[in-house]
Each structure stands twice: as structure tokens, then as C-alpha cells.
Amino acid sequence: MSTQRSVAFHTLGCKLNYAETSAIARGFEKAGFSKKEFHEPSDVYVLNTCSVTENADKECRQIIRNIRKIAPQSLVAVIGCYAQLKPNDIGAIEGVDLVLGAKEKFNLLQYVNSISRSDKAEVHSCEIAETNEFVSSYSAGDRTRSFLKVQDGCDYTCSYCTIPLARGKSRSDSVENVVKQAQEIAERGIKEIVLTGVNIGDFGFNENLQQNEKKQE
């Protein structure tokens, strides 16, 4: 008789990361995993990282060391912006089993179900230009309000910012799907929704631009 596996999540950074972590966590729960608090012993730990903080590397290493003290035999997966920017550096950290870049992070469940603990981390990254699809996400259950992701990525190449390198080009959800997601959130009894993205001022811009280009043709 198989025992139920457990998973714990820890999120660093912005509201966008919280929305994505929550969406990934719901996928694990639907697959039969029990969700644990991050300070509790768990079979799988997922760290969703941020690239904005100056101490991203130090913070990541410290959290992984703490995980190994709590659950030495657990599986540790690192995803998020820092995992896209420095995948091999993270993969070299002792105690890391899996590193997923921007394109693969939403396939985390499949990877977790197919790998086991190893002395060498499995790293799946990509060129950021390959990350061009929009994946809907929203947070639920961990706060009184919900963060609903409506836009991702950025087309601006500011010299001080790594977001375009970590999340790719600007892309948006459709208005229809945003409304559908909002209705789903409301059905959960959540009364406040915060729309979030890297640059929500760009919401729908690329779609409108493509439509105008087609008309001109």
C-alpha cells in the first residue's frame, strides 16, 4: 500500500511568484500530495526564487541548508527567476536535486514524479527567448486576498534589471480567461483580488499590436 507523499513550498520575492507558487501547489494537491508548512518534515521541498534581491545566492543556500537539517532524505527543487538566471550555480549547491528554469517550472510535478535523490542535481533550463507562453496563475488559501496574474515578462531592457532575462518578453492573459479566473477565485469565497504582473501596463499590448499588423497586411 502506497503512502501519501508530502510537499512544502517557500516563495521569495514578488506577488507574481506567490501566484505561481500557489497554482503549482494546487496541482500537487490534486495529484494526491499533502501540503506541509515549510518548517515541517516533508518528502519534497520547493523553493521559488527571486533574482531582484542582492543576496539571492546566499539566501538560497541558507534555506537549502535548513531543509537538509529538517529532512535529510527529502527531494529539493529550485524554480523561479534565480533558477533561470543561474541554473548551474544553483545545481552545484549541495542538497539541490532539481533546478527548473522559466519554461519548465510549471512542469514541476512531472519532474518530481520521475526523479529520485542523487549526488548531482538535474538541471532543466532554456534560452529565455524560448519562454513565450502565458500560464495563468492565482494565489488562494494563504492570504485574505488573491493575487491574480494577468501579465508576465517585460520588453524593456533596462541595464539595472534582470527581469527580461529571467521571465522573457511581455505577454498577457486574455480578458476572457482573466474573468474566468476571477470568477473561480470568487467561488472560493475570496472577496479581494489584486491583479499582478511584471508590467501590467503592457496588458494586452502585444495582442493589440499583432491584430493591427494583420489589419495592415
In short:
This protein is an alpha/beta fold and 217 residues long. The chain has eight helices and eleven strands. The longest helix has 16 residues, at 15-30.
Description:
The chain has helices at about 15-30, 55-70, 80-85, 85-90, 110-115, 165, 175-185, 205-215; strands at about 5-10, 35, 45-50, 75-80, 100, 120-125, 135-140, 145-150, 150, 170, 195. It has about 220 residues and is α/β, with parallel strands linked by helices. The chain is globular. The chain starts with 5 loop residues before the first strand and ends with a helix. The relative contact order is 0.14.
Please write out the topology:
Elements: E1 6-11, H1 15-30, E2 34-36, E3 44-49, H2 56-70, E4 75-80, H3 81-85, H4 87-91, E5 98-100, H5 108-114, E6 122-124, E7 137-138, E8 146-149, E9 151-152, H6 163-167, E10 171-172, H7 175-187, E11 193-196, H8 205-216
Parallel strand pairs: 1-2, 1-3, 3-4, 4-5, 5-6, 8-11
Antiparallel strand pairs: 7-8, 9-10
Shape: globular
Q: How would you classify the quaternary structure?
A: single chain
Work out the helicity level: 25-40%
Would you count the extended β strands for me?
A: 11
How is the biggest beta sheet arranged?
6 strands, parallel
Low-confidence stretches: 208-217
Strand content range = 15-25%
Q: Sketch the topology as an H/E string, one letter per element.
A: EHEEHEHHEHEEEEHEHEH
N-end to C-end Cα span: 62 Å
Q: In angstroms, what is the radius of gyration?
A: 18 Å
Quote the average pLDDT. Answer: 89
**What structural class do helix, strand and pairing data support?**
alpha/beta
Give the strand order, joined by hyphens, for the main sheet.
2-1-3-4-5-6
Count of helical segments? 8
